[in-house]
Structure to design on (254 residues):
């Protein structure tokens, strides 16, 4: 399938498909600025919808809807055709609301920012636009040695060449739990991605969590003493794949 043949309907199927479809979508977005921009716009729309309707999704389903479902499932004797149709319609709406209410708790990523995400957004906004001195150390071997010594744990910058990003270098930045490593990457168009690596506040494990701020997306997590946040102006699906690759390569801090 060529990029010219991709329409919105196909992008939606890829966006909500399995890992193989999301990988195909990432490849399309990597080589097509129009697709990238469309996915970013969809991400912004999704975030706006969650911000607007998130509180409602957390409310209990009204009892009148549950009563309608129970009534629709019971005997229909004595109801005229129009009343049976009305009951069925209300039941469908109630069931849809119930499914949506449940899915919002099971499937929706957790929004909002933690201290780690705030620090990651701040560091990215400070250093990613820098032209002359975006990083302190650019040599990968020297950078790994320096960061490992400062953080007291082996730090090897992840390789993100598969996503079109090369390592620019890194620096030490302050974080809530001591010094943190800021790794910077850049693609052929000059777009920059940063990874903040720090010690976690606890040994608790968290899954990937997502937030957006000023056009930037961030996925962050905590696992076995390691806290990490990836920040970039990318669609969520691509950011998730990069975060998974980062997680796989960094490993635990223990």
């Amino acid at each position: 399938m060529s990029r010219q043949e991709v329409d919105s309907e196909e992008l939606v199927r890829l966006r909500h498909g399995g890992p193989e479809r999301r990988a195909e979508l990432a490849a399309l977005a990597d080589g097509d600025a129009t697709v990238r921009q469309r996915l970013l716009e969809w991400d912004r729309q999704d975030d706006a919808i969650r911000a607007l309707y998130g509180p409602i999704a957390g409310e209990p389903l009204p009892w009148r809807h549950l009563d309608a479902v129970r009534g629709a499932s019971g005997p229909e004797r004595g109801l005229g055709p129009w009343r049976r149709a009305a009951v069925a319609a209300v039941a469908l709406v109630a069931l849809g609301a119930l499914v949506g209410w449940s899915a919002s708790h099971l499937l929706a990523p957790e929004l909002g920012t933690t201290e780690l995400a705030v620090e990651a957004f701040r560091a990215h906004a400070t250093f990613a636009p820098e032209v002359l001195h975006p990083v302190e150390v650019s040599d990968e071997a020297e950078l790994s040695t320096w960061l490992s010594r400062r953080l007291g744990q082996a730090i090897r910058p992840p390789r993100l060449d598969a996503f079109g990003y090369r390592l620019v270098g890194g620096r030490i930045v302050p974080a809530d739990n001591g010094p943190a490593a800021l790794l910077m990457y850049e693609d052929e168009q000059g777009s920059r991605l940063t990874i903040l690596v720090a010690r976690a506040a606890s040994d608790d494990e968290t899954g990937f969590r997502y937030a957006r701020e000023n056009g930037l997306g961030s996925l962050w997590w905590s696992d076995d003493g390691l806290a990490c946040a990836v920040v970039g102006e990318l669609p969520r699906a691509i950011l998730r794949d990069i975060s998974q690759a980062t997680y796989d390569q960094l490993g635990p801090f223990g």
In short: The mean pLDDT is 76. DSSP finds eight helices and six strands in the chain. The helical segments are 8-15, 19-31, 33-57, 63-73, 81-106, 115-127, 140-151, 236-250.
